[in-house]
Design goal:
mainly alpha, three-stranded antiparallel sheet, 219 residues, 9 helices, 71% helix, 3 strands
Length: 219
């Protein structure tokens, strides 16, 4: 049976990584305790776990979202690219038939869907499947934490229209082909190139958002 701490943690983690809270939100233990109908102890424990994950930080009245600087975001994108490209190379060398079936299914879903949000989700599942196919839990755990940090500080704005995903889906097809062929270095380079494209789109969204808000843009 799930503990009160775990239930609160999962609920708050879902909210934080899906844009439920605005950037200036304050998470107050007492208020959350009343909302979830539990004592403050499991709430504080859950908040402590989220703080260690780098998603929130302690403030005078409770906890606030950890919004990272432009430089920190660039560093996170860089490290994620290293981790995921290494996972793609490992997947090419270690994949099982089940791993390949999962990857193909995720890609099929991305080709089948017409809703941009569903396409984006299918592509995210593809990346998760690459991580699983790498059979390296350390890389998987580190990348998952960094991805969550990105979701809090730089939430992805899903574009409208299926056509905006065509080039990205093609890149995923090439990565899958390299993994199936066991071409580790090719898979690594293709994933690195794809993630660099993804980073550039994410940065352009950050710049656009900051300029609309009157903030100083990325250098």
């Amino acid at each position: 049976m799930k503990s009160a701490r775990d239930a609160v943690y999962e609920a708050l983690h879902e909210r934080l990584t899906h844009g439920h809270y605005p950037a200036d939100a304050v998470l107050i233990p007492q208020a959350l305790s009343e909302e979830f109908g539990v004592s403050r102890t499991p709430v504080r424990e859950a908040l402590g776990l989220l703080e260690r994950k780098g998603l929130i930080v302690a403030a005078s009245r409770g906890f606030v979202l950890r919004i990272r600087s432009d430089e920190e975001m660039l560093e996170i994108f860089e490290v994620r690219a290293v981790l995921e490209s290494s996972a793609a190379a490992a997947a090419a060398e270690r994949h099982t038939p089940v791993d390949i079936a999962r990857l193909r299914e995720a890609l099929t879903q991305s080709r089948t869907h017409t809703d941009p949000a569903e396409i984006r989700h299918a592509l995210n599942v593809f990346h998760d499947c690459v991580m699983l196919a790498s059979h390296n839990q350390t890389i998987h755990a580190l990348e998952r934490d960094l991805r969550d940090q990105c979701k809090v500080s730089a939430p992805w704005f899903t574009p409208t229209g299926r056509e905006s995903f065509e080039s990205s889906i093609d890149e995923h097809e090439q990565i899958l082909s390299a993994i199936v062929d066991g071409a580790a270095e090719k898979a690594r380079l293709l994933m690195l190139e794809h993630l660099n494209h993804d980073r550039d789109v994410r940065i352009s969204q950050l710049v656009s958002r900051s300029m609309k808000a009157g903030e100083k843009p990325l250098p």
